[in-house]
Amino acid sequence: LVVRSPEAFREKQGIDARVLQKVSEIDLRQKQVQGEDLKTGKTWKEPFDQLLIATGAASIRPPIPGIDAKGVYELNTLQSGIEVRRAMDEKNPRHIVIIGGGYIGLEMAENFIHRGIGVTIVEKTPQVMNTLDPDMAALLIKPLEEAGVKLYLNESLKAFEITAGEVREVMTDRRILPADLVLLGLGVRPNSALAQMAGIPLGKTGGIRVNDRMKTEVKGVWAAGNCAESFHLVSHRPFYVALGTVANKQGRVAGINIAGGRAVFPGVVGTAMVKVFSLEVARTGLQEKEILELGLPFVTAKIDAYTRARYYPGTGPLTVKILAEKGTGRLLGGQIVGKEGAGKRIDTLAAALHAGLIVEDLINLDLGYSPPFSAVWDPVQIAARQAAGQV
Ligand SMILES: Cc1cc2nc3c(=O)[nH]c(=O)nc-3n(C[C@H](O)[C@H](O)[C@H](O)COP(=O)(O)OP(=O)(O)OC[C@H]3O[C@@H](n4cnc5c(N)ncnc54)[C@H](O)[C@@H]3O)c2cc1C
After folding, report:
1. Test site for ligand 1: of 38, 82, 243, 275, most ligand atoms within 8 A of the Cβ
2. Are 378 and 313 in contact (CB under 8 A)?
């Protein structure tokens, strides 16, 4: 716990936060959970009237030879971050291989490069950041390579070469890479096994199925955060997202309802942002492949603009892509990559998606303007104008 210590929970808020205690079973019939003290090994049982499951997400770890060797790390808990940091300080690695070009892989690449370490990213798909359309993800390649990251796309991890119990090399289907340290960034899945074992229904995404009050299908049992499924407000389908933004909101709603109040969490639109070296990268809504899967007719508008008024010092490039439903003009999604302001602007699109706006509405939004922040027409509205001309 970083923000609040267990003592602060106990003393200031009356919450009995017990750490190093692992729940091994949920007994729905007896209405109790069974667990183990990880320090003493002693087991215990605790009854409940209401139960909230908030077990988070688990890293994806493929059964690849050598994956459990020393020097192979992942980054999913505070402790795993501490261990990577310790390895950096103690082993002084020269070559780091990152498996996976998602946002954690890219953020870590930046941090390793800042420490003067050679970084190679191996990614099995043809692009980094699979939550972006390929043309938008392509904008990240040059800054990554200019920063010194070696990028091998379309390449799969096959095995690790281990000497004296420690990783030395990474073998892909195309080459062998030297590695003093390996970081796995292969994504996460809902940590919902405990709930499933107890007979609490999961959704298609593997997350615990909940309604808009965060209640599971079992009376008195609730779930929130990265172990739970969400509802996508644009596709109107169940959706899984492992982000702190969503987890916090779901936790608030579950807490209010458990305490006897009434709150709803209607769903998500898939908003996320990340800084990749000199670029801000942000996305919301559906991407092209998701729209194609849904079989919706759509139009695309992509524009290159400036982050500030064109003449204002410090301005830089910004690319905005908007996807809208053909016929209705309903906004379906957007992606923004640029020097600055991508994060601010994606939130405009996220709000528009929540409100179910059409691109014509987006053009008329009363967004702010001053030369240090934008052109008179914000790039998001320029893209919306282009989309409106096609729908
Ligand atoms: C490196 C990194 C960077 C991130 N950056 C961002 C970001 O920029 N923006 C963003 O929105 N999100 C980000 N996230 C995601 C964010 O951290 C998570 O979405 C959020 O922490 C999920 O909250 P949660 O409460 O659902 O789960 P967690 O915070 O994972 O908490 C779950 C807890 O349950 C405990 N637990 C699990 N099983 C048991 C059991 N059987 N018994 C007892 N306890 C158990 C776990 O130990 C853990 O403490 C990042 C995540 C990582 C790893």
Report:
1. 243
2. no
